[in-house]
Amino acid sequence: MFVKSGFAAVFVAVTVALSHSGTSLACEGPVTSFSGKQTIRDDLGIDGALLRDQDTSPYNADKVWYLPTYTGNTIEEYRTMDDFAAGKVLTTYRLSGSTGSGGMAWWGQGHIVYNNALYFQRFPDCLSYSYDCSNEKAQIVRYDFSLRAFTALQALPTAQLSHWAAGPSYVYLAVDAGSVWAIGLNNGIFQLTKLNSQDLSVEEIIDTEFADPSSNMPPFISCGKFYSTVPDRTVQYGPLASRTTLIFDLATKQKDTSTRAWYCLPTEARRYFSINSRENKVYTVESNALVSYDVTFGGSYLADPATCAI
After folding, report:
1. Has residue 246 been placed in a domain?
2. Does the entry feature the keyword Secreted, yes or no (predicted)?
3. Overall number of domains in the chain
4. Which residue did the predictor score with more confidence, 293 or 129?
C-alpha cells in the first residue's frame, strides 16, 4: 500500500549519502582505499544485496536487511550481523505484486536503507508487459519498514532505461549529506539526481557529460564525490586492479579525469557494491561470497597497484 499518492514513476540508479548535520559523519576526505576483506557468507550466490541503515540512530545500528535476488518482493530482516551469518531471520517484509505483473518488486542490486526505510529501483513496467524500454524512465521507491508501506515513488527526469539484450541497465543508490542520490544513464552518459529522502522530490540534476565505461565495478557516491572506475594495470602482465576514470565533486561540479586512483579490488564483474559511510565499510560479492571491506577516507590515493595482493 501507499500512504501517500500522486507520485510519478521512474527507473534509475540511486546513491545515498547520510548525515543530520549536512556532511557524512565518516568523511575525512575522498575514498582512498578498500582493505581488510572479510567473508560474511559464501552460500548465497551473486544476486543478493546486504544492507545496513546509514542513519546514526542506535535503534537500527545492528540490524541487517537482505534482498536475496536481483529482482523480487520479499525482504529479510536480521537482528544482528551474527544472526545473518547464522541464517536466523527476525522478520520478513513482502512488497505488493511480483516480478512480471506490474507490482512493486525491486530491480537490480543498487538499494540502500536510510532512516529505517528501504530505497530501491522498481521493476520496470516495460519488462513486466514486454514492450520497448527505450522511452521509459527509471522509478525509485521509498518503503518504510515501520509502516510496512510505500511512502514515495519518483520518476527520474533524465535517467532512461537503457535497453540491452537482457533488459535495462540498473540504477544505484547512495546517501550523501542527508539526501538520496540516484545514479542513472541517459544515452550512456551518467546522470546524477539528488532526491529528498522523505518524499523523493527532485532537488538537483547533474549531467556529468561523462560516458559509462562499462566497468567491472558499479559507480558509487561517497562523501560528496561521485566515482567511476575501470579495470586496468600499469604494466603488461602486472596485477589487474580497479582505477578511477572520473572523480566528480558534487558541490563544486569539478570533474577530475586526470587522477588515476587505484583500488586493490579483484576485477571480477560485480553488480552489487554498497558503501556504508556510517560504518566505513563496503559490502559486495566476490567469487560467489558476500564480503565486506573497510573503507579509508582521506590521505593519498594509491598511485601504483604493484603492491596490491589480489
Report:
1. yes
2. yes
3. 1
4. 293
Quick: pLDDT tens for 88-110.
Answer: 999 999 998 765 556 899 998 99
What nine digits make up the cell of 182? 540516484
Give pLDDT, residue 11: 34
Buried residues in 171-198 as b, exposed as e (16+ CB within 10 A) = bbbbbbbbbbbbbbbeeeebbbbbbebe
C-alpha cell recorded at residue 83: 544472526
Could you tell me if residue 189 is left (phi over 0), alpha (psi between -120 and 50 degrees) or otherwise beta? beta
Tell whether 10 is covered by a domain: no
Place of cell 536480521: 78
45: CATH: 2.40.128.630
Domain hosting residue 121, numbered range: 15-307
**303 in a structural domain:** yes
pTM of the complete model: 0.90
50 occurs within a structural domain: yes
Cβ–Cβ contacts within 10 Å for residue 45, how many? 12
Residues paired with 184 in a beta bridge: 191
Alpha helix (H) residue ranges in the chain: 81-86, 125-128
In tens, the pLDDT along 212-248 reads: 887 777 899 999 999 999 888 877 777 778 899 999 9
